[in-house]
């Protein structure tokens, strides 16, 4: 037993004429939502395929729950690929039953679990419908059920929200949170930074086959803190002081002004505020937190 | 292992439940039955006799024209002008005029008909007259008919195959028919079921279900499961076809056979009365002969079938069907995995289809000479052996040749399956790329 559900050590994967993964190491703790980020073609899918044992690494080790990855682990992983489909002519119920049994569930157990999900998603009438009669969003729901039906310890979701309308996206988001609550670990690969912001506890960033960043989301955001503050005020135009520098300043329509202030070294918000209070009337004062979007773009640009 | 069984089960059940499978399985034997019924109907309806009147001014041929199921000859004494005039609207279909000087001018014979003269009638009349003139001329030369008869020998040969068990009557005709049918069935099924494997792999790839599947099962399991599942579908279809066809044929031949006998009798009785005595006698004789022949023919055919090594044929058919199918469907599967849509398969299909078509063409020669060098070699090479060996087996093949051929075929499909699985595991995850031969070759040597 290990504290980490997945440990990837120095994995290398080469294809015919390029290196997809170059000495990548990751650690995914149990019971978290782990965002695997990176631009297109960075090597995320290659990494996911190695974890799913679809391909094997050329070098490096992968530990699942503290032990080297083996064939039995397939039953403990649920994978929702980015490019996904179903047998178009097959009926919804038959198809889910088949996929569940391939994941090692007995027919009865699969049936029981399926019933729960059909009630939960309110899709009982779909059982005998062929997949091709469902809309794309409905098919995505079925795929999601297929991914989590066997209650895997590790769930890997590749762009799970693409193709969902906001209502269904919320539904799936709630399910993901509930699965985490029940003890599953979720690896979540996406480009959509707002869902990373919302869901992820940990993130890793891969760019050009290499790991660029890894850690708790909050820590990383702090690392990428710009140390700037946005001030909305009334009074004379703000000028540089001992503790800060004015980056921009403009007058709003209502006559108030907004300034972006960069704190000098060792100065924190309170130091700035003290000086500001002596000069102007403060309407609002807020530290600029790095958004995941900023982190992503900065980190990628730095590593390029 | 459990997963392979699940995959086989799915492949089998979804195919067998398809409407097209059920329709084809039922329609196949019905079409065969219809064809058989059509042949019999044609035979029955051709019993429609034509009446031919003959004016023999030479008086040499009276009673020499034999009536048959198709033609009844009636001799008339009149002059040609009258007969020609009355032909139209009479019960006769044609008029044969033999002039008095036929011996000197054999080319003056004329046949009149309202609707045109069939080639058959013409040759029949010519033959009868030729024969008679020959006899007359021979007699004139001093050779009697009995001398002539004894000089004529009826030569028909019986083919006998020498085998361990001693001499056995064999029938080359039955052997080539059985061999041909088996070879054709294998040829057809390799194409039909091989293409099914290919198409369904491409479909799984383009619908991206394969992405979901391979996180649960190994690509090799997926491929083997599909190949075996489709093979079982093929065996089921053949099995049902054989059972249903046998049923339809027995039922059909019973119904049609009775009718055939009836129509014959009715025809004879109705027409006998209208015939002159000689023709009546001949017609009767013919009828009896006809009946005799068909009664004798049937046991002969079954007898010939009995002499063939039927058990060997059935077992080897099953083996070569499965072996040939496995060998080729693996290759079809590899092609299916390498492309993005059915339309892209063309460039890779040719090298696979050429050996099958070649084997089928070579089979035509092998039927004529089942022990030639060509036959022996092509029945060993795994790519042609399923078809060629099936042609040869009904004729009897030395055991060592069968053993070598079987071993090579097993080796062959193990090899193609290995090759295909190497291509398959890479191909199914490769999208939006026009694949070349060079690339396929590279995939084979990718590791992991």
CATH superfamily of the largest domain in chain A: P-loop containing nucleotide triphosphate hydrolases
| Rg from Cα of chain A | 24 Å
The strands making up the biggest β-sheet of chain A line up spatially as 6-7-8-3-9-10
Helix share, percent of chain B: 55-70%
Alpha-carbon distance between the two ends of chain A: 38 Å
* CATH architectural type of the largest domain in chain A: 3-Layer(aba) Sandwich
The coarse overall form of chain B would be: elongated
Oligomeric status? heterodimer
Mean pLDDT of chain B: 79
Task: Report low-confidence residues of chain A grouped into runs of 5 or more.
Answer: none
Provide the domain count of chain A: 2
Percent strand of chain B equals: 5-15%
Task: Spell the H/E element sequence of chain B.
Answer: HHEEHEEHHEEHHHHHHHHHH
Question: Structural class of the secondary elements of chain B?
Answer: alpha/beta
Give a count of the beta strands of chain B, DSSP E runs of length 2 or more: 6
Estimated share of beta-strand residues of chain A: 25-35%
Report the strand count of chain A.
14
Biggest sheet of chain B, strands in spatial order? Answer: 2-1-3-4
Beginning-to-end CA distance, first to last residue of chain B: 20 Å
Q: Can you put this structure into words, describing what you see?
A:
The complex is a heterodimer of chains A (304) and B (448). Chain A is of the alpha/beta class. Chain A has 2 domains: 4-222, P-loop containing nucleotide triphosphate hydrolases (Rossmann fold); 226-288. Chain A contains 9 helices and 14 strands. Chain A has helices at residues 44-51, 92-102, 107-120, 136-148, 166-181, 193-199, 217-223, 269-279, 292-303; strands at residues 4-15, 18-29, 33-37, 59-64, 67-68, 77-80, 154-158, 185-189, 202-207, 210-216, 228-234, 244-251, 257-263, 281-287. A 6-stranded mixed beta sheet of chain A has the order 6-7-8-3-9-10, with helices on both faces. A 4-stranded antiparallel beta sheet of chain A has the order 2-1-4-5, with helices on one face. Chain A has a 4-stranded antiparallel beta sheet with strand order 12-13-11-14, with helices on one face. The longest helix of chain A is centred in the middle third of the chain and has 16 residues, at 166-181. Chain A is elongated. The model of chain A has no long low-confidence stretch (mean pLDDT 89). Chain B is α/β, with parallel strands linked by helices. In chain B, a hairpin with a 2-residue loop joins strand 5 (160-163) and strand 6 (166-169). In chain B, helix 1 (2-16) runs parallel beside helix 8, helix 6 (172-206) packs parallel to helix 10 (310-338) and helix 11 (346-368) runs parallel beside helix 13 (385-392). Chain B has 15 helices and 6 strands. The chains are: A alpha/beta (304), B alpha/beta (448). Chains A and B meet through strand 6 and helix 2 of A and helix 1 and helix 7 of B.
């Amino acid at each position: 037993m290990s504290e980490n559900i997945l440990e990837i050590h120095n994995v290398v994967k080469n294809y015919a004429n390029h290196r997809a993964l170059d000495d990548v190491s990751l650690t995914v703790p149990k019971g978290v939502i782990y965002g695997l980020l990176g631009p297109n073609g960075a090597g995320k899918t290659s990494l996911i395929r190695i974890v799913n044992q679809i391909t094997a690494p050329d070098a490096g080790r992968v530990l699942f729950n503290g032990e080297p990855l083996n064939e039995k682990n397939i039953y403990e992983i649920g994978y929702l690929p980015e490019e996904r489909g179903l047998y178009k002519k097959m009926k919804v119920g038959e198809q889910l039953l088949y996929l569940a049994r391939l994941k090692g569930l007995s027919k009865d157990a699969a049936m029981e679990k399926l019933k729960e999900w059909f009630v939960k998603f309110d899709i009982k009438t779909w059982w005998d419908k062929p997949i091709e009669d469902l809309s794309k969003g409905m098919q995505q729901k079925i795929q999601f059920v297929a991914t989590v039906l066997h209650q895997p310890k590790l769930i890997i979701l590749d762009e799970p929200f693409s193709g969902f309308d906001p209502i269904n996206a919320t539904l799936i988001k709630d399910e993901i949170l509930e699965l985490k609550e029940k003890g599953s670990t979720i690896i979540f690969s996406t480009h959509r930074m707002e869902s990373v912001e919302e869901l992820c506890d940990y993130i890793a960033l891969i760019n050009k086959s290499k790991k660029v960043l890894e850690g708790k989301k909050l820590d990383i955001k702090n690392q990428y803190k710009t140390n700037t503050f946005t001030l909305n005020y009334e009074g004379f135009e703000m000028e540089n002081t001992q503790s800060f520098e004015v980056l921009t300043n403009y007058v709003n329509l209502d006559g108030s002004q907004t300034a972006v202030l960069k704190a000098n070294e060792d100065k924190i918000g309170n130091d700035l505020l003290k000086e500001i209070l002596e000069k102007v009337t403060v309407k609002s004062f807020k530290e600029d937190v790095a958004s995941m979007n900023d982190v992503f773009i900065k980190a990628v640009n730095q590593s390029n | 292992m459990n997963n392979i069984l699940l995959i086989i089960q799915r492949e089998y059940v979804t195919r067998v439940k398809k409407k097209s499978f059920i329709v084809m399985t039922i329609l196949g034997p019905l079409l065969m039955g219809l064809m058989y019924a059509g042949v019999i109907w044609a035979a029955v309806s051709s019993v429609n006799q034509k009446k031919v009147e003959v004016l023999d001014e030479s008086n040499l041929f009276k009673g020499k024209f034999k009536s048959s199921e198709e033609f009844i000859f009636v001799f008339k004494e009149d002059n040609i002008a009258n007969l020609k005039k009355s032909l139209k609207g009479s019960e006769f279909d044609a008029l044969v005029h033999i002039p008095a000087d036929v011996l000197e001018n054999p080319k003056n014979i004329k046949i009149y008909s309202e609707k045109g003269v069939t080639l058959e009638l013409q040759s029949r009349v010519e033959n009868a007259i030729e024969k008679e003139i020959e006899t007359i001329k021979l007699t004139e030369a001093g050779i009697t008919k009995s001398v002539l008869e004894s000089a004529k020998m009826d030569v028909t040969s019986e083919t006998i195959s020498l085998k361990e068990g001693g001499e056995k009557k064999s029938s080359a005709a039955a052997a080539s028919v059985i061999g041909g049918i088996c070879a054709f069935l294998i040829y057809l099924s390799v194409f039909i079921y091989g293409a099914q494997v290919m198409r369904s792999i491409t479909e799984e790839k383009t619908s991206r279900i394969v992405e979901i599947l391979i996180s649960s099962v190994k690509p090799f399991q997926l491929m083997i499961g599909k190949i075996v599942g489709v093979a079982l579908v093929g065996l089921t279809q053949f099995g049902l076809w054989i059972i249903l066809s046998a049923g339809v044929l027995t039922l059909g031949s019973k119904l049609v056979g009775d009718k055939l006998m009836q129509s014959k009798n009715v025809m004879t009785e109705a027409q006998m009365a209208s015939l002159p005595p000689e023709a009546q006698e001949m017609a009767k004789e013919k009828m009896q002969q006809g009946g005799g022949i068909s009664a004798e023919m049937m046991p002969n055919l079954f007898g010939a079938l009995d002499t063939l090594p039927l058990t060997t044929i059935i077992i080897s058919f099953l083996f070569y069907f499965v072996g040939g199918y496995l060998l080729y469907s693996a290759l079809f599967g590899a092609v299916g995995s390498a492309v993005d849509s059915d339309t892209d398969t063309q460039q890779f299909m040719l090298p696979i289809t050429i050996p099958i078509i070649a084997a089928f063409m070579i089979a035509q020669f092998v039927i004529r000479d089942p022990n030639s060098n060509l036959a022996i070699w092509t029945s060993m090479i795994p790519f042609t052996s399923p078809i060629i060996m099936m042609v040869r087996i009904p004729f009897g093949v030395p055991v060592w040749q069968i053993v070598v051929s079987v071993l090579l075929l097993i080796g062959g499909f193990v090899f193609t399956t290995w090759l295909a699985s190497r291509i398959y595991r890479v191909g199914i995850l490769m999208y939006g790329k026009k694949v070349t031969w060079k690339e396929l070759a590279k995939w084979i040597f990718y590791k992991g």
